[in-house]
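Hi everyone,

Forwarding the result from last night's run.
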Amino acid sequence: MIMRIIAKSRLKTYWETPGNEKSQPYLNEWYHFCSKQIWRTPQEIKNMIRNVSFVSNDRVVFNVKGNDYRVICAMDYPRQAMFIKFVGTHKEYDRVQAGEVE
């Protein structure tokens, strides 16, 4: 079973916001890459993506486009599901609590 990403609409809402249009190809690429993966543990993600970060509450922080954008996902490894909790620039990310963002 490959990874299911819930909900792509958060990415779309972000890139459709005025000023964020340039993020679309990078976030789309990230989405399609992740949706083809089978990750059973945090270490499997780390083996594939070195600059990923792990925070509390099974949250994973992905750096997109050389760290210009960040995507925070809550992971459910047994169900092969990623729940997008945050999409934003590095600067926007600095204003949230990665382990608590809903």
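Residues 4-93 form a domain with the YaeB-like fold fold (CATH 3.30.2310.20).

Cheers,
N.
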